[in-house]
Amino acid sequence: MDQIRAKETVLKVEGLEVLYETRQDDLKAVRDVSFEIRRGESLGLVGESGCGKTTAALAIMSYLSSNGRVTGGQILFQSENLVGKTDKELQPIRGSRIAMVYQDPMTTLNPSLRIERQLTEVLVVHEGLTKREAHGRCVEMLEKVQMPDPEHIMERYPHQLSGGQQQRVVIAMALLCNPDLLIMDEPTTGLDVTVEATVLDLIRALRHEFDSALLYISHNLGVIARVCDRVGVMYIGELLEEASVEDIFLRPLHPYTRSLLGCVPSIGTSKTTHPLHPIPGRVPRLNRLPAGCVFEPRCAFSQEQCREVHPPLVTVEGDRSVRCPGWQVLRGEATTLVSDDLTAGLTVSDRREDTRSVLSTSHLNTFYTGKPSWIGRLMRKKEQCVKAVDDVSLDMKRQAILGVVGESGCGKTTLAKTIVGLIAPTGGEIEFLGVDVSKIVEKRPKEVLKELQMVFQNPDSTLNPTQSVRQILARPLRISRTVPRSQVHEEVCRLLEAVSLDASYLDRRPGQMSGGEKQRIAIARAFASRPELVVCDEPVSSLDVSVQGACLNTLLGIQQTYGTSLIFISHDLSMVRYLCDYIVVMYLGKVCEVGRTDDLLSPPYHPYTEALLSAVPVPDPTVQQARIRLEGAVPSALNPPAGCRFHTRCPRKFGEMCETTEPPALWAGGGHIIYCHIPLEGLQEIEPAVSE
Amino acid sequence: MSGVPQSQSVAASSRVAAAHKSRTVFDHVRDGWQALRGRVVFLFESKTAVVGLAIVVFWIAVTILAPVLAPYPPNALTGRVSESPSMEHLMGTDYMGRDVCSRLVYGGQTILLLAPICVVCAEIIGATVGLTAGFLRGMVDEVILRILDAIMAFPMMLLYMIIMAATGPSKINIVGVIAFSSTPGVARLMRGLVLEIRDLEFVQAARLRGESALYIMFREILPNCLGPLIVDACLRVGYTSFWIGSLGFLGIGVPPPDPDWGRMVSEGRAWILTAPWIVVCPSLAVSSLVIGLNLLADGISEASKRV
Amino acid sequence: MTELILRRLGLMALTMIIVSLAVFWISEVAPTDVARNILGQYVSEEVVAAYREGLGLNCHWFVRYVIWIIGDDWIPPARELVGDEVLPQCCTPERLDRRGLIRGDLGTSTQTMRPLTPFVSRRLKNSLILAGFALVVIIPTSLLIGVLAGLREGGFLDRFISIMSLLTVSAPSFAIGVVLVVIFCLWLGWLPGISALETEHSVLESPSKLVLPVLVLFFSEVGYVARMTRASVVQVMRQNYIRTAILKGLPRRQVILGHALRNALVAPITVIALHINWLIAGAVVAETLFAYPGIGSALLGAAVSKDVSMIEASVLLMTFLATSTQLLTDILYTYLNPRIRYR
Fold first, then answer.
1. Smallest CA–CA separation between C336 and chain A, in Å?
2. Which of A27, A305, B33, C10 has a 20 to 30 Å separation from A108 between CA atoms?
3. C258 contact A CB<8A
4. What pLDDT does residue B119 have?
5. Domain boundaries of chain B, sorted by first residue
6. Contact A534, A455 (CB under 8 A)
7. Domain B47-79+87-306 has CATH 1.10.760.10
8. 3-state secondary structure string across A401-457
């Protein structure tokens, strides 16, 4: 660490202030942000949406939108102040000495230009190379970012590459001129977790090779823990704390940092051992900031002086800084805080397990078939079949929470929709409360409908924008006749209370609510008819970290009150591990492993589960994770591999059997089933993927 | 929730419940009025919309007050032939000796009467067709799409000419043909909206409740389409006025002797170099009306995007 | 892509069949008495009956329709085939001697009794010349204006262009024409007025006659295309890949020419392709105002004088043009869009 600190400073930001002019107000999106990055060092800026981290990065590149400008402070890049420079002056710097990697690689690359053109033009413009020389350099760089078959890739268009490949191209583009400063803005958000792991490994490897300074922006604490040396925590435009990565995660000082760490589920925590403590209140708007400390309204330790005086950023303990006057007092306190309303009464008691089955599927299939049109048939095109859900057999107990986890294309959403009836199954059976419901929802018996409901993923489209909350909640009550007509109104109010919202929300429209509030209304709507089973399809993935915890707790609370069973679908293994009693792991439409949560997280496990566990970013730099990495990307569902679907990427491939025959079910006791050719004893000998 | 003592929470919730209890019709009307007023205020922020509105209102007023405003009856021969503008005849007289200004004042009624009717018909029929096609999909959708494509491939002018050749020009023919030709555009717009909306999650939630198809179409999907439909209607009124004016010019619009700006231009075009006021005045009049309608429509669509 | 073309061709054929049936039905079948419609009120019943027979109108409409499409000069005369006694009343003694629509024979004008094909092809040629010149002027101007407006979004130039576009698009073509005539012929005296062209001479012999009609078409279209281009440019400049290009350190000119325009011009070009059809058929207003002998005014004349076969023929021609331009547009769009071209 001292070696790095002794190197030269590449970027020094002092007192940066950025202003946006809107029709109503002037918004100070970034206020008094200062940090420093040295050569070879990486600084992570972490914070939730709207905290200004991306704005700060764009300000460094001087690429603010037309209504934004830097109103104060300096940005010293190798002792040159970038503030106030014109585009012409900046043009030789951008792309060659400072380079940037962005969030969504598909939209970052120009869809009408070949990869070769987009890569070579950087070298042609900045280093004056000819096209041929540039071509050679680009191929070399593509090899360095571990692209298979680089020559071929150069000829392709962006849409012909997978997400992970596209991101590697963007990274290669940024590194071509060996920049002094590399800025990365959420580069792995949107990638599958196993692909994300390989890209993060790549970033680490490249850092050693290139010795650039790295500014890494993310909202994901686990990723920050893996990639960065130092961390800065931002909240509504201010830097609240900055320290080394160990200090931030193990000895956080600022109340916000502590709260943030306390409301993120980690792979080692479950709802019984470490309940989540979401941060109460809402993020204030930029035009209505508190006068004193910006975090004060939501802070559990706030004092009189916090409300009145805006605290400055002070340097403590040598190399860290914090913006809180009470840091010394807090140093002694416990690292997690307990906040009242959202956790009150959340006793996850050891209730007796209810062994009755509420839902069971047997060899369930859902295939999407694309029949070619009559012209296509004339041209002899074959019928295309996507086996989204292939031979899935599950059994769900009452009052239990089952998690379904897997990456893109694994079929978990299709499974959810088939169980609930939005899609008709192609084969197999589903039995719900003793009734056969292997059909589409329009054909199911009406009495069953109110017992099986769903919470959807996207809070912006889950509620009808033209209806008020009152209408949205009253309708399912009226239809299912849960309560007599005269009591509908009271029941609506009770539902609102159950999701921690007050009656002032009754006449609001979805357009007037935040994402978290809308999702809570959606939860209330699903539970209105007091169903036996609720399927939740990634209900909190689109929400901010601090809001996710509140939603999850709401869900848990309401589930306990009504004794409902839950099926919780997610790609986030940490969240599933936190919430669920049982877990199902899916890959390309098939089940790999199913069992109790605790059983699943220690060996024996399926090689895919092992890969997932070792790939998941953990917000704790001291945790040891195995480095099992999968090659390539998830194969196309149109043409799944024969035999075991996972064999093309399996690091523990057993032999030819894996390519030809479907794996058998291995019973590991207590309902734990693994579908693999490797015998159980072999799986038990695997080292655990995650250890403290 | 279970942490708070049971009795307290029940009491609290019933107090709050009583406060928000019943909503009468009056409440609904008041809400609707406030929403409308909010939208109108938004409109006034756009300068283009204000100018457009002013022009349109001006012409509507002129047309309604035509009997009062016109100095002479529109078909009466009140002056010498092709007299240039003077104090007696503000815009001169035409080739027959009729006062141009009076004819002008009466001439807008064709457009202002027929265009809204065409558009309303097109919107209603088109929206229904689009809703059906988008919601039901499958064979129904395919067939409807083919029919719409065929209609759209057919230039409207030609259709009108054929119909006119068969049954003669009349107001009903104009309305019928224009509405018929505009329907595919509206239907496609609606179908596109319906396709987007029916996959949204609140519609899926309605299916899970067991709602009937009619309920989903009319209570879940349709209210979300009204915004774009209204914007489309506004744009379409301008477009329709353009065509009604052109039909008048071609001599195949409403039959004489109803005064009509387009026909005034067509009848007077032989005198364009000798007595230009005969054709320039109605040209400017019809242009200004259509410009006003388009400005207003532009302003409305801008305002709706900002909301 | 082959599949797309095949499908479009199939649709074209289907549309043509439907349209031909529709227009045939409307013109000849639906109105109660076609012959009476043509001859007018004051002619006696016998003359009408004779005329009807002469036109072959006593045949079943489907037979007439089929003859119209495939002609009857390749069928031997009915007399030879079946003999005198069995000859049905409907078919005329003499064949109509048509080669059929499919082979390019558009029939005979009901009004002038002269063959339609030479007349229609001459008029069509004039319309194509007019449309061609108009396109040559419209395409570069509107694209250039649109791109400039889009790049300086919100600036004075942008607002000026937007307002001017709105004004010219809204004003009906005849109004624009009138204003242009007043300015150029009356005030400035640069151009001759709107005297009629003799229909036998080629339009290209007196090019000054083309100027005003081309200008009218120009002003009607340029605003629309310019606005579309502007909107497309504005949208493209907001895309992430433009941000990437700028932050890669590319000079502004390269960003615009190399990255932005390639994506921004796809929409306007396809719109222009679609509008070719309008420039041919919809120019009827300009043609009427300036007495330009194009296909639009020919059709108008036919509609007014109830020249049934002319109406049928030209309507089918126009529909063919319309569907062909749609096909052309689809192909163009597919070609310009790598996402579709290379799956």
1. 8
2. A27
3. yes
4. 94
5. 1-45, 47-79+87-306
6. yes
7. no
8. EEEEECCCCCCHHHHHHHHHCCCCCCEEEEEECCEECCCCHHHCCHHHHCCEEEECC
The helix (H) or strand (E) run that includes residue A28 is strand A26-38
Contact indicator for C222, C171 with CB cutoff of 8 Å:
no
Q: Which two tokens stand for residue A606?
A: 């399926």
Could you read off the pLDDT of C12-69 as tens digits, one per residue?
888 888 878 887 777 666 665 666 666 777 777 777 777 776 666 666 777 777 777 7
Question: In this predicted model, which residue has the larger pLDDT, A152 or A654?
Answer: A152
To which H or E segment does residue A326 belong?
none
Sign of CA dihedral B137, B140, B146, B148: negative
Contact between A379 and C2 using a beta-carbon 8 Å cutoff: yes
Instruction: Tell me which of B116 and A342 has the higher pLDDT.
Output: B116
Among residues B257, B276, B261, which one has the least CA distance to residue B94? B276
pLDDT value at residue B5: 41
Helix, coil or strand: residue B85: coil
Query: Quick one: which of B261, B232, B285, B222 has its CA closest to B119?
Result: B232
pLDDT at A210: 84
HSE, CB side, 13 Å, CA atoms: give it for residue B209.
29
Q: Could you tell me the domains of chain A?
A: 2-107+175-246 (3.40.50.300), 108-174 (no CATH), 251-343 (no CATH), 357-582 (3.40.50.300), 602-691 (no CATH)
Mind listing the pLDDT tens digit for each residue in A516-558?
899 999 999 999 999 999 999 999 988 888 888 888 888 888 8
Please, what are the domains in chain C? 31-103 (no CATH), 116-336 (1.10.3720.10)
Which distant-in-sequence residues (6+ apart) come within 8 Å of C252 by Cβ? A87, C246
Which residues make Cβ contacts (< 8 Å) with residue B227, sequence separation at least 6? B304
CB-based contact B275:B32 (threshold 8 Å): no
Q: In the prediction, which pLDDT does A49 show?
A: 82
Average pLDDT for residues B234-242, to the nearest whole number?
A: 88
**Is this complex scored with an ipTM above 0.90?**
no
Query: Which of C19, C21, C160, C170 to mutate to probe the B interface, most B CBs <10 Å?
Result: C170
Asked if residues C19 and C321 have their Cβ atoms less than 8 Å apart, the reply is no
Across the interface, whether the CB atoms of C174 and B249 are under 8 A apart is answered yes
Interaxial angle between packed helices B109-136 and B222-249, expressed in degrees from 0 to 180 and rounded to the nearest 10: 140
What is the Cα–Cα distance from C263 to C232, expressed in whole angstroms?
8
Q: Are strands A357-370 and A320-322 parallel, antiparallel or unpaired?
A: unpaired
The rounded mean pLDDT for chain A is 87
Give chain C positions within 8 Å (CB) of A105.
Answer: none
Q: Which two tokens stand for residue C61?
A: 């409409």
Collapsing DSSP to helix, strand or coil, A181 comes out as strand
- Judging by beta carbons within 10 Å of its beta carbon (0-12, 13-18, 19+), is residue C69 exposed, middle or buried? middle
Please tell me what DSSP assigns to residue A148. S
pTM recorded for the entire structure:
0.83
Q: How far is CA A363 from CA A369, A415, A429, A644, in A?
A: 18, 12, 7, 17
Cα distance between residue A205 and residue A203, in whole Å: 5
- What confidence tens digit (pLDDT) does each residue in A376-417 have? 566 666 677 888 898 898 888 888 999 999 988 888 899 999
Of B149, B165, B279, Cβ closest to residue C306: B165
Interface of C with A in 5-24 (CB under 8 A): 6-7, 10
